[in-house]
Amino acid sequence: MCCISFVKNSINLISKKVKLFFNKTKITVVGYFGYDNIGDEFILHSLIQKHRNEKIFFVLSNNPHQTSKIHKVASFSKKIFLLFLNLLLSDKLIIE
Question: Taxonomically, which superkingdom (predicted)?
């Protein structure tokens, strides 16, 4: 009985988190983050703190690991994203 209750509670918690994720606005932030520039990092910090409860942030960064660790957000390599975007926009055909 204990295990069944634990599983049900876990499923309920996961489903609540999934609903929250899909109901929140996602924002991708592009800037000079991850370059150890305190001004840009402070602007990002302020933006995230002001809107953390109602938005989910994805940050493009020169140093995604550092950006994720400092700001507690999902962060991705700015260079790789821009290369991918360039390839995507230059393709004549995209197959999924």
Answer: Bacteria
